[in-house]
What does this fold into?
Amino acid sequence: MGGTDRGAGRRVAFLGDGLVADGRWQEWVPDYDVSNLGIPDAKVEQVLEALDRVVDDQPDAVVLLAGPTDFDRRGSTVEHVVRTLESILVEVRRRLPGVRLLLISVVPGDERSAERRREANRHLWQFAATVRAQYLDLWPALSDKSGELTAEYRGQGGGLSAAGYDAWVAELRPALERLWDGPPMSRPISIVEL
It folds into this structure.
């Protein structure tokens, strides 16, 4: 953007909830042409409804992180979060067949939701390969021994602190590079309805 070739062929759309929206992605990953399509305080169905923005952006890669907002509120089931995130991935793949996909694990939260978040991540990790998405597990970098978000990584209002984003970006940079190691998708994946 802006007349430079920085990030040429490496347009990355960050899609997700408030953790994505609050990120300074262009600053943190300057080798890419970044679009921040995060939606503050969004639940997974709101992210699904925003897919037209991703398609309009025509990125070379999509980084998806959503689900923490759903688990921070009572009432969202693991199945609902997982199925909606799977739908997002399938739709991105269908509508942008050549895009590179990076799915980020649902990040740790508090003790009440730790097991549900872990369960969602187990399902998402298994599903990612079916849409040829790479999966980045942030739990080793962000959680303490009990499965909660490490205290120094907790920001105000349930978000991440600056140190939390630093830990995420340290994992993200090599994951983004790996996205370009293999060829992009060149044809749509057929999704068979059962």
About this structure: The CA atoms of residues 97 and 188 lie 5 Å apart. Residues 1-6, 186-194 have pLDDT under 50 and may be disordered. The first strand starts at residue 11 and ends at 16.
